Amino acid sequence: MTEASRRVLIADDEAPARAVLREMIAARPHLDLVGEAANGLEAVELAQARRPDLLFLDVQMPRLDGFEVLELLEPSVGVVFTTAYDQYALRAFEVNAVDYLLKPFTEARFARALERAEQRLGKQRPVPASALAAAARPAGSFTARLVIKDGARVELLPVAELDYARAQGDYVELVSGTRSWLKEQTLQDLGAALDPGRFVRVHRSYLIQGDRLVRIEPVSKDSKAAVLSTGARIPISETGLARLQAWLARRG
Amino acid sequence: MHPILSERRALVAYLAASLAASYLPASVLASPGDPRFVLALAAAALPTLLLGVGALPVYYLCRAVPLRSSGLGNAFRVHAALAAASGVAFWGLLDVAARLLDWVAPTGLSGEVERQWGALLTLGAMLYLAAAAFYTFVSSAQRARASERRAAAASLRAHEARLAMLKAQVHPHFLFNSLNAISALTVQEPRLARELCVLLADFLRSSLAMGERGTVSLEDELRLARAYLDVERIRLGDRLTVDIQVRPPAGEVRIPALLLQPLIENAVTHGVATCAQGGTLAVEAHTTPGVLVVTVANPFDPQAPGRRGARAGGVGLANVSRRIAVSYRGASLTTQRDADRFTSTLVLPIGAAETRGT
């Protein structure tokens, strides 16, 4: 049986770590190494330009970490995480049945990871990228920034600059001042990554940064809107109003 | 805490003892066989009880003016004055009580009180001094217990700081990444792989040896840092450059072992390694009279992915702060975060490091 040819990309900031993978990939004729990235941003750019089937992805890298890279990848790319030691990431991998390699690894362990990745190719990822990232964070900590793909560019939006987010089908619209971006993510997953001490889900389709709230205005007899410091008016649902009032009470 | 006022049973016993002590002035006024003795007891009861109650606050005085050789004269004068005042007050109260009794039924007790003024005055003063002696004893025992507790707490803190240091000696992330680098190099660059094995062994050996020593010279500490940085340089390649400047005689100053190492490792892990282009880790050490100053400076990427970065770096810094707090007086660790540069400055008094190995 001849194996289908696969395009492979490596992302690791340590040259020796890339060398191990390069060597093991070179020993398999059906694998075609299409690029090597030394940081997270490069990994995203190379993945876009070279369209790999498989990506060996280090967790701790400059610019973007492995989880942020995963958020920006096409879901069709098969990913095998690599890490030397990261207790939080490892727990997230085990819980979510994600393929990973513990460095250093043997030829046999590499072959097994390859096999499992092959079986998963073309299938849905077991968990959304942002949910995996959330699982890899220490309890009680939240994301400090959002990664967004804007065409070919990668934008980093510090959460402090996010005014509100709106659900748009399979996407969320992230709004900061006069700028806005679409990101493929559910509002639910976005909410899970953000500090509930700062962000409030005021509506099934809206989430606001609490300290942007200026006042709550009645719109009609039984509906209200949140007016933000940017002037934006955000609809508030009944349960959203209860959440907002609870948030305001907590903040004192 | 007041030894008597803080406990109801102690207070009851104390007041009962004060009442019982009226036996002493009563026996001055009439011999126990004398029928007037009961009257004398009745006259003495209230003044003795009042003296007892009046002596209760003496505890606070004894606590505030402890008997130390430096303030002995002072304590003596205070207690002598109060003893004299107590004697006079005691005698005055007895006089009033005896006159009242005489007014009800003339027994001549008041005349006896006037005649025995010397003995009664002395008795009042003695009762005061007994109370003062008791309280001085209690408060010094309390002080001794408190200082024992403080010493125990301090030694516990020192112990914890030492444990944290031992745990921080070798980071698993560093160790596993180094092993991975060796596994890579064995095929492509066997000589470099062997060199990395030796460097890693050097680092592990000296870090184990240093963990057992209380203090080391700064030069020894920096030798360990160089071994560590040699390993990191193979992993990170040309992204890491190192610049160590030690101005004599700073290298000979003794410091707690492994004090600097967390700062160096932070500078790599949360600093240079976060920069895609890398950068220079700079260590500078010099002495000013009586003080050793060591700075560790590194670039960092202010936009580095911070899944848990800042906090993880904070642990190392907090450990260093705790260690200098338990082994030095007047030492400090300050950090400065500029746009893309992080500097930690360690200021240590020379010759003040304790050798008990904290």
Write up what this structure looks like.
The complex is a heterodimer of chains A (252) and B (358). In chain A, 33% of the residues lie in helices and 33% in strands. Chain A is of the alpha/beta class. Chain A has 2 domains: 6-135, 3-Layer(aba) Sandwich (Rossmann fold), CATH 3.40.50.2300; 145-251, LytTr DNA-binding domain (OB fold (Dihydrolipoamide Acetyltransferase, E2P)), CATH 2.40.50.1020. A 5-stranded parallel sheet of chain A has the order 2-1-3-4-5, with helices on both faces. Chain A has a 5-stranded antiparallel sheet with strand order 10-9-8-12-11. Chain B has 358 residues and is α+β, with helices and mostly antiparallel strands. Helices cover 63% and strands 13% of the residues of chain B. In chain B, helix 2 (23-29) crosses helix 3, helix 3 packs antiparallel against helix 5 (72-104) and helix 7 (117-168) crosses helix 12 (309-327). The two termini of chain B are 34 Å apart. The chains are: A alpha/beta (252), B alpha+beta (358).
